[in-house]
Amino acid sequence: MSLQGRDKKHLWHPLTQHKSHPNHIAITKAKGAVLYDENDNEYIDGISSWYTCVYGHCNAYIIDKVCAQMETLDHVVFTGFTHKPAIELSEKLIEILPDNQEKLFFSDNGSTAVDVAIKMALQYHFNHDEKRTKIIALENGFHGDTFGAMSVSGLSVYNGPFEEFFIDVSRIPVPNAENLDEVKALFTQLITEHEVAAFIYEPLVQGAAAMQMHKAEHINEILKIANEHNVVTIADEVMTGFGKTGKNFASEYIETKPDIICLSKALSAGMVAMAITSCSQKIYDAFYADDMKKGFFHGHTYSGNPIACSAAIAGIELLQSDEIQANLKRIEASHKVFDEDIKKHPKVGNTRQQGQIYALDLNIEMERYGNLRDKLFNSFMNKGVCLRPLGNTIYILAPYITTDVQLQKIYTAIWETIEEL
Amino acid sequence: MSLQGRDKKHLWHPLTQHKSHPNHIAITKAKGAVLYDENDNEYIDGISSWYTCVYGHCNAYIIDKVCAQMETLDHVVFTGFTHKPAIELSEKLIEILPDNQEKLFFSDNGSTAVDVAIKMALQYHFNHDEKRTKIIALENGFHGDTFGAMSVSGLSVYNGPFEEFFIDVSRIPVPNAENLDEVKALFTQLITEHEVAAFIYEPLVQGAAAMQMHKAEHINEILKIANEHNVVTIADEVMTGFGKTGKNFASEYIETKPDIICLSKALSAGMVAMAITSCSQKIYDAFYADDMKKGFFHGHTYSGNPIACSAAIAGIELLQSDEIQANLKRIEASHKVFDEDIKKHPKVGNTRQQGQIYALDLNIEMERYGNLRDKLFNSFMNKGVCLRPLGNTIYILAPYITTDVQLQKIYTAIWETIEEL
């Protein structure tokens, strides 16, 4: 039986209605920017497997480091114990994170990184004997699927069964040139009238909201107000981290730095699950006390896993290499040239770019999980390109090692698909 | 600078008050049942690094499989795509899970496996147009640290800042010979008076509650009542799974099978983070519909990660090998012999064993995170054995490849430590 056939027996895929979407394409190998399926078809991985494999699939440099780590130390409890991969990663990561970030707390995915950040923010105030319980989030933000992360997400698609269990969240519109004064007033009002613990936001690019982008100077105005009122600021850089926006982190573009940053996805270089919640000394100090109870009693078994840390170290080394830095500039420039042409197409509406992230909206209404969206996806796959449209938004977030020829293949697939619509 | 010194700069460890516990022992390598620190000290890993590395550290059989997988396919989106490691793992795992388990849903750690299980249970009723929102859990159960998992945990140590965000949970005592009728009556009353969606329990052994054990026939009575009222039953086998209790899963001892099982820890053989929430066809079918909304819109980026799946496949192959099966019997018998003697010690109170899990309580009151508990931990470490007492409970859950000589070293460390108290 084909892999696709065997898949149907026991696997329940994420974010999938299996009745309307019974078939899953069986990928058998991957190398660089290319995925290969069981029928020997090739696809350019135009979204880096959900923004993870940015240094390319099955990268020899990363594999060598990870295999060496597996031979030396696979795993050890991270309470009472430590190890070199976690220490080296902490040193390398703190070096490239915004200057105010001082401490790293490990977990296993973006959702738990956000749950950790929310718990840190709530307990920060609790430890200061202040009762603050409300979280403010951006409209259409997405932060994950655990109960805490789901609560702060404005975009979760079908939350009916869970809504009554959400933590206390208020939302503000994403600030822009037109609404800035209004949003500032609303934010200030919320802080004045409620006990606001934290503000969570995806800096510069809201990924799941179809790569919606906002300006650094506008979000900065909100962060300044948060700081004035000691509202803990949480930057969710799970998607934007590690070079995606043109700098290592989107927060670098924004003058006011966050108290807490959530990292995952490209953090572990597309190898295995890992997440980190980093924070400033101010946050950490609120937990450092003679009173045991003031500590942060959160933990996951594979916290700080040495194998995942070794992948992350290799990833940062690659990110800092001249080769990848040159590639980042090349791909960013290439997308700009593509944009100059495609944005004139009558079926294309808004287009936008931030570093490696390029998005265009079609002038056609589409449901997020509807037939038209599926038709787009299938059209790209038939042309040998893996792109996953978000409703009527087509976006590219290709591995940093994608060649010019491969980029052209992506652009051509988009042109042809739009023409055929 | 020593690794221990460098550790202090940027790492925030889980479940740690850094002011009272500033020093973390730096482990530099591991092999089989032994951990080595940066000062060349050796420690038998008497708790399998939190019940993960049960086939031994840096196991060549597992490493070979994982490295081969890394060379072939590191990662791919698991929505719309599938791959051989996930398929093979699903076939192997379904073969050894209780017969009623049919589908597997991936996530990354025990907490998310529980959040997924709770969301499945809530949406199961929602999709059947039934409003059921209360969860019933056992007193002193522990299920993880994300908001959902924390809510159902009765044991979470310091929940002050978070309690008001918990989902709606009622607790029942762990059933035993004395209280069985009472607990059954309470459980029935809760189900009759409230809209109960699910019952979650750690089958046979409550790990974080200091390896408290209960009998299969008593918990079975509760499960029977749950089934009669269509209350979804969730077995949290994150700790008990994969041979710990003497069978592959603790649920095998209990006549009534759970609707949902949470798996992690030893699932991925001590290599990298991964979790699975398995379920029966009945649960899956409630989500399988023409209506997109009835699908389960939960997902984590590294869901079904091929590298983690390859480790899990190797782990199951080892678990089923004659060698490991013989080891399981040998270690279980060895603990029994040790127990015969130590239980007579005047400082020892209750002792208990379930397969590989051995626990003894000291006749001394201790705080869970107090000085006396730390003194015990340090005494074991000084004798070359890593055991992490839970309050006044000393327990052993050694790798399945621990030799008789290594077991004797563990037993001697316990004898000597108790004598010195």
UniProtKB/TrEMBL annotation, chains A, B:
Descriptive protein name: Adenosylmethionine-8-amino-7-oxononanoate aminotransferase
Cofactor: pyridoxal 5'-phosphate
N6-(pyridoxal phosphate)lysine carried by residues: K265
InterPro entries xref list: Aminotrans_3, BioA, PyrdxlP-dep_Trfase, PyrdxlP-dep_Trfase_major, PyrdxlP-dep_Trfase_small
Function: Catalyzes the transfer of the alpha-amino group from S-adenosyl-L-methionine (SAM) to 7-keto-8-aminopelargonic acid (KAPA) to form 7,8-diaminopelargonic acid (DAPA). It is the only aminotransferase known to utilize SAM as an amino donor.
Positions bound to pyridoxal 5'-phosphate: G110, S111, D236, H300, T301
Protein's UniProt keywords contain NADP: no
SUBUNIT field: Homodimer.
Binding-site list for substrate: W50, K265, G299, R388
Enzyme class at the top of the EC tree: transferase
Places the protein is found: Cytoplasm
Documented EC number(s): 2.6.1.62
Key words of the record: Aminotransferase, Biotin biosynthesis, Cytoplasm, Pyridoxal phosphate, S-adenosyl-L-methionine, Transferase
Species, as recorded: Kordia aestuariivivens
